[in-house]
Amino acid sequence: MNILSNLFSALVKPRCQLISILFSLIFFFQSCLYAQHEETAYFRDVTATHVPLDPDAHALDIALLDVDGDGDLDVILALESQPNRLYLNDGNGKLSWRKDVFLNKNHDTEHVRVADFNQDGIMDIVFVAEDDQHHEYYLGKGDGSFKNVSDRLLAKSEGNGLDVGDVNGDGLPDIVVGNSGTEGQNFLWMNDQDRPGFFIDATSSGLPQVNDASQSIKLADLDGDGNLDMVVGNEIPPNRLLINDGNGIFTENPDQLDLPVPLHTREVLTFDVDNDGDLDIIFTNLTSNGGPWEKDPRVRILINDGKANFKDETINRMPANKFSTYAGIPIDFDHDGDTDLLLSALKIPPFEPMQVQAYENDGKGNFKDVTSKVIPALTVGRSWGLAIGDLNGDGINDVLIGAWGSQARLLLGKKVGNQ
Question: Is it the case that residue 341 has pLDDT exceeding 70?
């Protein structure tokens, strides 16, 4: 009997150990796969623990601002069909929703920008809305609360683009609004030197009088003369390049903007793509706004010759893409000193959620799709506006991702390589 028992143990025990090892390996690989699902070497998706959950919200644009003076960045969301929102940061990137800070009414808000309009040392906020044309303007108090002064804005419009900056060199931030609809003239509102925080309508004297279907406006010094010029991204072609004379008078220069294919542009980005010291242009585009296939949605890259002449070099520099892109943001996610690119992405048609996309710059302005190694597999949605900043105080940029009818997401940046 003892001989049989010993023989049985000799046969069974190694098998049990083997099974135990196999289960351990399976658990290990499952853990690795789950970890890769929620994080990569570059980012960790902490949405479930750090962001108020609201998978049905339409957060179309984002601004990061320390609204309460505690030294960390809070989150301002421009929402469609809901009141605009403020998420307060606990200093570690965990966000909590402070309600009823902004007007508690549903509006079709598209964009948000921040600037110290009234020169009191505290940042203020402006929102623009599309369908219901209800723009909002708030003066910051520095304690996380705001004064609603929306009645100071000069006109209603189908606002789809927005930027702020000092366009006439008086030291005060001005406002440009991109409009669409039957009365799609864009607006230029100059900050009043005699009453900072109030505005003077300079549209008729400062901008070309044209009825565009604008979706994005970007102010940037494109010709290196110290003045803010303007790039206008339109839903209906063409996009426009406007050069500033230094006094806030903008003149269109169509011959300086190479547009070889018709575009439905949703965002204009300007940054030094090829590290030659001047600003280049990227247009993010749709095939259609959730409809059938119409235009080529490929992200376009236009290189500046240093004199604000922009040549479309997309074919040689940018990966081909079939997804549509409502927003993008420049960020050095691999910490190698040049600027990479993150892109929102939707499959249109039929308006399906997709993973946020990552394009890596080789330092000379040539981009490669590195989404699979950079973006966690979990980071999927109908992504919209993007904002970057250090939310958890570790010195590395994080990414807040807006979304249409899906959850806004937060990616915490990670140290990479020898950083």
Answer: yes
* 136 CB-side CA count, 13 A: 27
pLDDT above 80 (res 249): yes
Taking the C-alpha atoms of residue 390 and residue 93, their distance in angstroms, rounded to an integer, is 8
- Give the bridge partners for 354, in sequence order: 381
Q: Which two tokens stand for residue 406?
A: 């899906």
Check whether 30 has a pLDDT greater than 80. Answer: no
The 10s digit of each residue's pLDDT in 285-336 is 999 999 999 999 999 999 999 999 999 999 999 999 999 999 999 999 999 9
How many angstroms separate the CA atoms of 62 and 258, rounded? 30
382: tokens are: 């109908």
Per residue, what are the HEC states of 148-167? Answer: ECHHHCCCCCEEEEEEEECC
Give the pLDDT score at 23. Answer: 46
Check: CB of residue 179 under 8 Å from CB of residue 214: yes
Closest CA to 79 of 55, 95, 61, 100: 61
Alpha-carbon gap, residue 196 to 177, rounded angstroms: 19
Report which of 122, 120, 123, 51 is spatially closest to residue 85, judged by C-alpha positions.
51
d(CA 346, CA 353): 5
Ramachandran sector of residue 334 (left: φ over 0; alpha: ψ -120 to 50; beta: rest): alpha
Q: Which of 169, 69, 195, 176 is nearest to 123 (CA)?
A: 69
201-214 burial, b if ≥16 CB within 10 A, otherwise e? ebbeebbeeeebbb
pLDDT over 50 (residue 31): no
Q: How confident is the model at residue 39 (pLDDT cuts 50, 70, 90)?
A: very high
Angle at 111 between CA 109 and CA 114, to 5 degrees: 120
Question: What size, in residues, is the chain?
Answer: 419
pLDDT tier at 26 (50, 70, 90 boundaries)? very low
